Amino acid sequence: MTPVTRRTAAIALLCATGPVHADTLIDNVNGLTMSEFGQLSRFKGVIIGEDGRVVRLLSGDEPQWIDQGKKAKKAERYKPAFPNVTFRVDGKGRTLIPGLIDAHGHMMGLGSALLVLDLSGTISLAQAQAAIATHAAEHANRKWILGRGWNQEAWGLGRFPSAAELDAAISDRPAWLERVDGHAGWANSAALAAAGITAKTPDPEGGRIERDTAGRPTGVLVDAAMALLTKHVPAFTPKERDLAFAQAQEALLSSGVTAIADMGTSVDDWQVFRRAGDARRLKLRIFSYADGLEPLLSVAGGEPTPWLYEDKLRMGGVKFLLDGALGSRGAWLKAPYADQPGSRGLQFMEDTKLRNLMSRAALDGFLIAVHAIGDAANAQALDAYAELAPTYGGDRRWRIEHAQIIDPADLPRFARQGVIASMQPVHQTSDRTMAEARLGEGQLGGAYAWKSLARTGAKLAFGSDVPVELPDPFAGLAAAISRQDEKGEPAGGWRADERLSFEEAFAAYTTGAAYASFAETKVGRLTPGMRADFLLIDRDVSKVSAADIRKTMVSETWVGGQPVWVRK
């Protein structure tokens, strides 16, 4: 069959209900991938098999036609060098890179955020109140007003907002708005009343009810205290959850994310993923980490699930929470907060409980991921891993999620104990001024310490923590190599000795993120036998500035050798 252009075949592939029985050649590209030796490797084309795996990378020097000699019939003297290729795509000189992997995100959190009020762009309390009032008026039929994304630091408020201030925007029904980091929520008086939260309500373990001098709730609930209210919030219907998933998937694919480690999968979340897979609507890959033991055992039982839907879905691990976040002063520190000397944050569970939970998961071969932001929480996680290692040793791929503030003395322990640092570069640029205020210079020595960890030999896996941050891996790459935000601040980068090289940052979004979920034999690199997950983008990100990396436009996103998102 004479090769045809990809443009005429793209629609057919996008709509295909089964595997396409033909190899596809994508040439005329500037290809980049990490090699098996951890170096940046270049190529000019790629052949994809009918099974959606890479068959061969092309250097550009290969002959396009083979001369069979003068004895061959005239019509058969020249044959294509790649006889199994049926479809050809002209890459038009664009850069082709492996699909980027978000090593820590919240799939349904992103989808839900797209269905409720988004306050992440507000820069003052008054602006937020106006947005809330408008949203409430536009959704007069909703029994609760829900939203997320507020940040009192961005508002310059210097304190948490109050229920009375939310009442000024919406008072005729309950309203509940989660903070940008998901570790605090803001309720109006109607919501507090619906949940029965009063001055007599005690703080739960691992949580805090913000109160006035008389002990009355002021409207903000931190970490575990949020559950006192969220259990009263009406749940999304299955159809709404399916819509949320579809929107989240579209947002990720359009950003260049072809796989995500979903940190905190519930049973309901898993059912959404399975419905999408069964209906052939699951386009990206989800490495699922259950939200504690209960969903883990309900879904996976006694061992990790098999890879489902052509390696698109697997529940292989579990996530535990050890502390909160810096923004709500819930991160557990070894020393008091510089801007609140009476507090060291929140410890979510004591050592014995943590070790028991981790042992239960490790016994059945599940991966363990532990959320730890403060240096005390990171030390607790490292201590637990060290104690369990003699019993559950071997290649466990144990992880610490965020690892934002680490005691410099604990940095070498990551590599020594084989603990993966799963970090989010954009948190550093978002948190910079707040971290300085919360911690003071004395506690910043191991803050967002990417390079220090890399120097010790620790494995890095990078993500976004979406919806806390935007699901944009190119913004993360830019932050990782510059330590600067989208405005180029601060000049020279914040604590610039922690900047990474492009190769280090690129690996953390590809091979490192795949390794962290035991997926390195399937995705993360483009090499024969691996799944053909890749992006066509508008620039060579290895050769431009951090500012230009931020501007990268994804033209096409391919998963398993098929285009799943094409820019219109």
Describe this structure in words.
- With 568 residues, the protein is an alpha/beta fold.
- The chain folds into two domains: 101-106 and 237-564, Alpha-Beta Barrel (TIM Barrel); 116-230, Diaminopimelate Epimerase, Chain A, domain 1 (Roll), CATH 3.10.310.
- The strands form five sheets. It has an eight-stranded parallel β-sheet.
- The longest helix has 18 residues, at 238-255.
Proportion of strand residues:
15-25%
Biggest sheet layout: 8 strands, parallel
Gyration radius, in Å = 25 Å
Uncertain stretches of 5 or more adjacent residues: 1-21
Top-tier CATH class of the largest domain: Alpha Beta
Based on the coordinates given, report the CATH architecture of the largest domain.
Alpha-Beta Barrel
Can you lay out the helices and strands and say which pair or pack?
Elements: E1 4-5, H1 6-14, E2 23-27, E3 30-34, E4 40-43, E5 45-48, E6 54-58, E7 65-67, E8 78-80, E9 85-90, E10 95-98, E11 100-105, H2 107-113, E12 117-118, H3 125-138, E13 145-150, H4 163-167, E14 175-179, E15 184-187, H5 189-195, E16 207-211, E17 217-223, H6 227-230, H7 238-255, E18 257-265, H8 267-278, E19 285-291, H9 293-299, E20 313-321, H10 351-363, E21 367-372, H11 375-388, E22 399-402, H12 411-417, E23 420-423, H13 425-439, H14 450-455, E24 460-462, H15 473-482, H16 502-508, H17 511-516, E25 534-537, H18 546-550, E26 554-559, E27 562-566
Parallel strand pairs: 1-9, 2-9, 3-10, 11-18, 12-13, 13-14, 18-19, 19-20, 20-21, 21-22, 22-23, 23-24
Antiparallel strand pairs: 2-5, 3-4, 5-6, 7-8, 10-25, 14-15, 15-17, 16-17, 25-26, 26-27
